[in-house]
C-alpha cells in the first residue's frame, strides 16, 4: 500500500507516469522535464515533503486514538457521533464501571440483525488514558459475500471520557458508503442500557430523513 502512496505522490507532483523518460505532463501533453523551472533536487525535496505529510494519513488506523473522535463527515451513512453523560454525583470510576458493564452486556450473537459475528474489546485504557475501542463484526450477508470474500465487515466504537465522566462516542464502519443502519442500531442499543442506569444517552439518527426512514 505504501508503494502506491509514493507512486501517487510522484504522479501528482510530476503529472506524468513516464518519469524515467524525463517527461512531465501539462494539460493534454507531456513536456520535457528540463524545460521545467524546478531542478531535480528541488523535485526530490517536494516529494519528500509531500510524503511526510501523506504519511500521517497513511498510518492513521482504527487503533489511532488521536484521530478516534473526529466528527463524522457531512451526510455520512456509516458513522454516528454522540455524547453520553452520567447521572449527577456519579464519580468517574463509577462511570467507567457503567460503561464496561454495558459494553460487556452486548450480545455476542448481535441484536436486531446486526453484529452477528461478535465483538471484542480491542483497547481499554479508560482508567489511565480515558479511552477505549471496541470492534464489532458484521453478519455475513450478500454484501460481505460479494465485497469481502465472505468475511464479516469490521466497525469501530471509539470512546473518550472526560474528567466528569462525560463520554464522547463515535461508531463507524471501516469500509463502504452505507452501513444499512448498523451503527445507529448499535449505539441506540448501548444508549438504552445506559439510560436504564440513569445516564443521559439520547437516541441517535444519521440526520438524513430519507435514510433514517429506511434504517
Please provide a written account of the structure.
The chain is α+β, with helices and mostly antiparallel strands and 215 residues long. Helix content is 33%, strand content 20%. It has helices at 2-14, 40-59, 92-104, 142-147, 182-195, 209-214; strands at residues 23-26, 29-32, 79-84, 119-125, 131-137, 154-161, 167-173. It has a five-stranded antiparallel β-sheet with strand order 3-7-6-5-4, with helices on one face. A two-stranded antiparallel ribbon has the order 1-2. Helix 1 packs across helix 2 (40-59). The protein is globular and about 50 Å long. The two termini are 34 Å apart.
Fold blueprint:
Blueprint: H1 2-14, E1 23-26, E2 29-32, H2 40-59, E3 79-84, H3 92-104, E4 119-125, E5 131-137, H4 142-147, E6 154-161, E7 167-173, H5 182-195, H6 209-214
Antiparallel strand pairs: 1-2, 3-7, 4-5, 5-6, 6-7
User: What amount of the residues lies in strands?
Assistant: 15-25%
What oligomeric state best describes the polypeptide chains here? single chain
H and E string: HEEHEHEEHEEHH
- Inertia-based shape: globular
- Low-pLDDT sequence parts: 1-67
| Tally of helical runs | 6
Largest sheet: 5 strands, antiparallel
Radius of gyration: 23 Å
- Calculate the terminal CA-CA distance, rounded to whole Å: 34 Å
Number of strands: 7
Looking across the biggest beta sheet, what order are the strands in? 3-7-6-5-4
The percent range for helix content is 25-40%
Mean pLDDT: 77
Query: Which class do the helix and strand fractions yield?
Result: alpha+beta
Amino acid at each position: 500500500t505504501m508503494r502506491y502512496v509514493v507512486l501517487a505522490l510522484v504522479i501528482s507532483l510530476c503529472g506524468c507516469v513516464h518519469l524515467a523518460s524525463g517527461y512531465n505532463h501539462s494539460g493534454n501533453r507531456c513536456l520535457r522535464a528540463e524545460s521545467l523551472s524546478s531542478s531535480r533536487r528541488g523535485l526530490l525535496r517536494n516529494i519528500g515533503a509531500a510524503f511526510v505529510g501523506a504519511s500521517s494519513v497513511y498510518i492513521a488506523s482504527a487503533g489511532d486514538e488521536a484521530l478516534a473522535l473526529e466528527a463524522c463527515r457531512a451526510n455520512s451513512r456509516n458513522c454516528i457521533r454522540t455524547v453520553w453523560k452520567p447521572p449527577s454525583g456519579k464519580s468517574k470510576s463509577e462511570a467507567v464501571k457503567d460503561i464496561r458493564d454495558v459494553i460487556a452486556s452486548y450480545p455476542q450473537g448481535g441484536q436486531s440483525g446486526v453484529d452477528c459475528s461478535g465483538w471484542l474489546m480491542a483497547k481499554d485504557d479508560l482508567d489511565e488514558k480515558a479511552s477505549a475501542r471496541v470492534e464489532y463484526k458484521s453478519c455475513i450477508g450478500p454484501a460481505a459475500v460479494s465485497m469481502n470474500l465472505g468475511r464479516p465487515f469490521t466497525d469501530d466504537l471509539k470512546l473518550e471520557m472526560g474528567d466528569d465522566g462525560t463520554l464522547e462516542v463515535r461508531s463507524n464502519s471501516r469500509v463502504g458508503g452505507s452501513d444499512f443502519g448498523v451503527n445507529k442500531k448499535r449505539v441506540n442499543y448501548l444508549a438504552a442500557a445506559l439510560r436504564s442506569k440513569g445516564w443521559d444517552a439520547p437516541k441517535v439518527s444519521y440526520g438524513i430523513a430519507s435514510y433514517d426512514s429506511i434504517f
